[in-house]
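Listing S7. Sequence submitted for prediction.
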Amino acid sequence: MLKTRFTELFGVEHPIVQGGMQWVGRAELVAAVAESGALGLLTALTQPTPGALVKEIARCRDMTDKPFGVNLTTLPTINPPPYAEYRQAIVESGITIVETAGQSPEEHLEVFKAAGVKVLHKCTSVRHAAKAQRLGVDAITIDGFECAGHPGEDDIPGLVLIPKAAEHITIPMIASGGFADARGLVAALALGADGITMGTRFMCTVESPIHQRVKERIVQSSELDTELILRTLRNTSRVASNAVSREVVATLDAGGRFEEVRDLVAGARGRQVYELGDPEFGIWTTGLVQGLIHDIPTVRDLVHRIVAEATELIRTRLPALTGPTAGG
C-alpha cells in the first residue's frame, strides 16, 4: 500500500484518481474505481440536468459504499449550463469530494466549503495552481501537455510541469497527463506529486461505459495517433486522430473560421462515437498515453496491478540503484 498526503486527506486507499471525462464518468465506472480503492469521479455535465445528476449519484451509491466524487468543469460558452444548480445538486446529495476544472473555482468555493466538501482543482499551469491554492482549495491536479482534452496553451509537458508546480504548491498535488502504469506513478511521486490521475487508461477497462470498438482502437493506436485541434483559436484540445479531426486541423490551419468546423467538433458526434462504436464518426478525446495501453482489464485488476508493481519498483529497483552501503 502506498500512503501519501492525498490518500490520507481524501480517505482513499490508493493514490490514483479516475479523471472526470465527459460521457465516460458514469456510475458503473466510478463505482468500480471506488471499489478498487482509488478515487472515482462522476462527470456532472455528462448528465443532462442537475436532477439527472442527483439520480446518477444515487445509482453510484447503490453500487459502492466507498468514497467517490464529482467533477464540475466550467468553461466559457455562449449558452452555459446552470452551474449553480449542478453545484447545489452536488451539495444536497451529500457529496464530500469535488474536482473543479476549467475556469477559476472561486465562485464555487464558498458553497462547497460551507457544506464540508473537499475541493480538488485541476490546472494546466503553475500560475493557475498557485492562485487556486491561495483561494483555499484542498488539493491541486496539475495537467501536463500530454493529456487528453484541454492541455492549456503553454505546452509544458509533465516532466517539467510537475516538479515546477511542486516548488510552489504546499497542499497535496496530483499529477495528470500521460499516466497509465506503475512506472508513471513512481515517476510522479519522485517528481513531487502525491498521486496520479488517469483518464485514457480508465477508458480502456471492462467497466468503462464506452463501446468496445473504441477501447480496441485505443489499444491499437500509438502515441503518434492524436491531433491538437482548435490551436489557432487558442482553445486547444487533444483528440484521437481520425478523418474528422484531421479535417478540422487542415481547415483551421488554412485560415478557416470556427463556423466552418462547428458541426465537425460538435459534442453530440463525440458522444455517438462512444455509444455506437465508430471511431471515425466524430471528435473524441484520448491522450498520448494510449501508446502505453495494451489491454482492457477490469478496473480492479488495473489498479491493483499498478499499485503492486509500483510498490515493487520502490522496494527493489530504486534502492538497488544506489549500490551497497558503506561497510555493507
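Caption to Listing S7: primary sequence and predicted C-alpha cells for the chain studied. Residues 299-320 form the longest helix (22 residues). The chain has two domains: 5-208+299-316, 222-285.
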